[in-house]
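QA checklist item 7 of 12: single-chain prediction sanity check.
[x] sequence parsed
[x] length recorded as 194
[x] structure emitted
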Amino acid sequence: MLKKLTVFQEVRELEGWQAVAYAATLLERMLPNYTLFCEVTEFADPSLYRNSLDAIWDWLSSPKAKINFTAQLEKIEMAVPDVADFDTYGVYPALDVAMSMTAIILLIQGEDPQGAVVVSKLSQGGVEAFIEATAEGDISDAEIKVHPLMQWEIEVQKELLVLIKKHPHSGSTCKLLKAFATEPGMTNIGIEIN
């Protein structure tokens, strides 16, 4: 449990572009979970969320970019899945993406200064829930902590903190962070990205 707390504490201390960049990078790893859910269930057009995340990256790359985040928020709120409407596990990671997207936009708008912590916890919680859902029988907290997916999640978040603190706010840093999220070719819950 100590490892988790230190990551969240460090994320809590991020401010401004660093907090948004941290959250956007984690969301970049999670987004394919939403896309896959939409493709399988025909729930919504996943490009809505892709476009919103691209707008966040644009805003990060060039802070003078004029982006109507209130309109973005309205669009994504129309495509939030209701877990009661689906009997597939995929709705949960999809909902994590929707909640993360909302948290980042509220962070940008200054309405939720802890938006990066919200996304950090949703990503890690999503991994935990996935491990529990795919385990054969009951699984202890200790077993979850040492599970390769959870170990990877914690390492990614720690490495991301180092990257964000080491690099200046720039378009090239945004490219680096996006590549960091997509290069492993897997989502936070281990689903392969084509």
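[x] summary fact logged: The two ends are 33 Å apart (CA to CA).
[ ] second reviewer sign-off
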